Predict the structure.
Amino acid sequence: MSFRKLSQRQTPQQSRAPVSDAFKECHKKEGSMDTITGKLDQICLTEEMADVFFSFQGENIVRIPAHKMILALRSPVFKAMFYGSFPQSEGDIRIEDITLETFKRLVKYLYTDHLQLSKNCVIPLLYTAQKYQIAGLISKCENYLQDKLAVDNACTLFSHAKFFTMAKLRTNALKFIADDAIDVLKHDDFLLLLSEDLVDILQLDSLCVQEVDIVRAVLKWVDHKLTKSKNKIDGKSRRAVLLKDGILYTMAIPLLSLEEYTSVVIPSSILTDEEQLQIFKAITIPNNPSACGKFSVSPRKGGRVVEVLVNDIVYPGNNRSGDINDIMFSEYLTNLQPENLSVKANKRIKIKSVTLKPQFQQPGQNNCNFKVDIKTVTSVQNILPRRSNMFDFREVESSGTETDEGTLNVTFEGRACKLPIDKVISENEKLVLTIKPCIPFGYSDMWGTNQHVIPILPQKYQLINGMMYQHELSQQTTLYLALTGGNLVESFEVVEIC
């Protein structure tokens, strides 16, 4: 026979010579070059059949070859340039407002649709896409920027969105800034805003932040602007900048508390004597908006503060008299002891402050020192396997990590004492406050029933969402609380974050 016999262990496929990886790669490239995309990729940025050149001035003049028809198919600007009423005929096209690298990225995209964006190239490429009216590239750049929205760039991206008239990015950036205003206003990116862009942000009714924090942020912004321009920082210079574009009157200064007004606004010297008197009257005389002049007097919906009274939670529906002295049963009274307050919600909130007012039973025994430990607990729920019983339910085991947020030392002198907390907690977090009386060493007997007797919070064993109490803050926000120990907290302030 003229055919070579196969060995018993060899199949027909195994008898073939192995194909090398190099051959496969070469065949793959040849196959890809046989497509229109492959051909365009092959001639991109080469002089093969090129009929136009773009030149860039640098240390040496650099020329980029291209093909008029391909550029015209992708861009109406190039189409008008090469095939319009007055087409570009001879000589190189000089590019002075776009860098060489950015233009090469553009040409590569026009020929192949290949695009690799980064934070350093996206804005120059977006400008180039706008200049040559390349809608697809504009959309890709806008989507990239939207995906990168964060606290450290939200203000800058909002400014870019305005400049490049990107409505979608502009809307989303403003919403991000409003929702995360507490953090955005503290970041250095906020200081880079142009005055007209700052006005757009300050006019938002949905800013989830207190007005005093807005005022502080604006004062920091104006000082940064004066420092950058090497101008003197004083009341006159600040006022001049804030009057531009009406920045000064976008702040609802008349809504500040008297303490906030005197400690934040007055030292900045941004108001005239007449304005200072107007706002002082507006703050101290309720329902007198006519005294506010040009200043805004509308509270922002995003920064609404709600005071929650502990008695309204523990004794809902006024089932108990608000006068603690009406308690006649000794089992409701106890020696001075710590109180634990835990708060979480179904959405992001900010605990602005907590007011301590221990309700002592013995007259004249009101002075006391307290230490307040503040923690946040981030919870993780683990679903355990089903039980094999008649109820057939899954157990939920909660675990979490604790973060110490600090300690406050407080002296109570018989009057309500408001403690600033200013802590944002998310849906999977809870804020835990432990208020401990500081009992002097060797004086434990003096802190007994004859000295500091207070009501004890009633125990409630029915748990709701893992907590003892539920309180409807609004139609959108529900609080869950645990309160144990002595009745030391009178109320706390909550800010709903949209």
